[in-house]
From TrEMBL:
Transmembrane segments: none annotated. The keyword Acyltransferase applies. GO terms for biological process: polyamine metabolic process. GO terms for molecular function: N-acetyltransferase activity. Keywords: Acyltransferase, Transferase. Belongs to the acetyltransferase family. InterPro entries: Acyl_CoA_acyltransferase, Diverse_Substrate_AcTransf, GNAT_dom. This is N-acetyltransferase domain-containing protein. The lineage of its organism: Eukaryota, Metazoa, Chordata, Craniata, Vertebrata. PANTHER family: DIAMINE N-ACETYLTRANSFERASE, GH14572P-RELATED.
Length: 173
């Protein structure tokens, strides 16, 4: 399918938020999405952006049943490993269901990997839910290694009150 990958523009943020919500619905976590297109715009298009994003766009004649031409996105940012140096972290890779199986996801992931290589990154990291067999197979089919299975790493996070309490030195012993 004809599809163009391009950097996300500020005016695309509403479309990206739409797809973020679709992804959260698929992942059975719709109540976790707090982002708005305004915040996404501020965080991605300020002087020091927190993330970068690519969108997949199809020509108007191939628009979705709901009229969308932006049909996928890959959101990423740069991070650092004290063992390996520069890394690229793929936060989301999403293609609308009616456009899956047409190579769009592979194009997005390959482009993010290319950006990582161009920026001298030694690794590309991302997470996937343990029940999402299709995504696991897709990633492993492109050479990804499940670090939980291979090396026993677990991925943790702090948010909300726990993060604020730790910042104030109020958690732990």
């Amino acid at each position: 399918m004809e599809c163009v990958l391009r950097p996300c523009r500020a005016e695309d943020c509403a479309e990206v938020v739409r797809m973020i919500k679709e992804l959260a619905e698929f992942e059975k976590l719709p109540d976790q999405v707090e982002i708005s297109d305004q915040v996404l715009r501020e965080d991605g298009f300020a002087n020091n952006p927190f993330y970068r994003c690519l969108v997949a766009e199809v020509p108007p004649e191939h628009r979705s049943r709901d009229g969308h031409t932006v049909v996928g996105y890959g959101l990423y940012f740069f991070t650092y490993s004290t063992w390996k140096g520069r890394n690229i972290y793929m936060e989301d890779l999403y293609v609308m269901p009616e456009f899956r199986g047409k190579g769009i996801g592979k194009k997005l992931m390959s482009k993010i990997a290319e950006i990582g290589v161009e920026n001298r990154c030694s690794q590309m990291k991302f997470v996937v839910l343990d029940w999402n067999r299709a995504a696991i197979d897709f990633y492993q089919g492109h050479g990804a290694v499940d670090l939980t299975a291979a090396e026993g790493w677990h991925f943790f996070h702090l948010e909300g009150d726990a993060l604020k309490q730790l910042a104030r030195g109020q958690l732990g012993q």
